[in-house]
Amino acid sequence: MTGTTETTEPATARTRLVTGPGMLLVWLYGVMSVGAASRSVYEISAKFDEAPLAYTLSAVAAVVYVFITYTLVRGGETARRAALVCCAAELAGVLVVGTWTLVAPSAFPDSTVWSQFGYGYVFIPVLLPLSGIWWLRRSRTA
Amino acid sequence: MLDALTVAVSVAALALAAWCGFAAYRDQPTKDWHFIGMAVVTFLVLAQLVVGIVQLVRGEKAEEGTTIFVAYLLGALCAVPIAGFMSLAERTRWGSATVAAGAVVLAVLEVRLFDIWTVG
């Protein structure tokens, strides 16, 4: 009985992603989620017409951050893989949007969360997915 | 009054960040003294929230709008306590690192709050 509790109870069998460095990571993702989500809700509801592209991209960033935060808190192998895919998408998003804002600044009357590789957020947007991928790869369970 | 509090919170937040960062560096979890420090910082932010709302009620205007100003005041209030609770769940150096990161976030929010409030 005691030996099988781990397999019969999926909640305890799940890989915990929020331990050690994961705690710091989930905090930063949480901060970025709240920041990007509240920012895009405000911008889209108050002044969407000023820079629709920029505000839509900020909203996309917010969704990505919220989803990664959720998967990190949830834990488990499926969530870990989903988070890994999203971190890669996030990194690609930061690089594409960052380059886009530098190449065609006229398309962006106002900035997005990912403008200039996250310059407005002390480059956390470009550093976060890198450390996320590192952490998620490391906590792969045997 | 509000500007003085903003400066005070920023300095206190950076001190807390350094202190908890040092604890993380020395491989220690957050201790009672750290939580007292977090309480002091949170009390200052609470005072800032009250003063900020009183200024608004008196008819003063935040440069970038009331909504953003109040949202940042509330965000600033939550930052350190939430990080503190997370450090209770993570009794290692990483809990201390989380509180240090929370205090840095608070300091950044204070810089933004200064811009949001001040004309120019």
Automatic annotation (TrEMBL), chain A:
It comes from the Bacteria. Keywords: Membrane, Transmembrane, Transmembrane helix. The chain crosses the membrane at residues 24-42, 54-73, 82-104, 116-136. This is Integral membrane protein.
From TrEMBL, chain B:
The keyword Transmembrane applies. The chain crosses the membrane at residues 33-57, 69-88, 94-114. Keywords: Membrane, Transmembrane, Transmembrane helix. This is Integral membrane protein. It comes from Streptomyces hydrogenans.
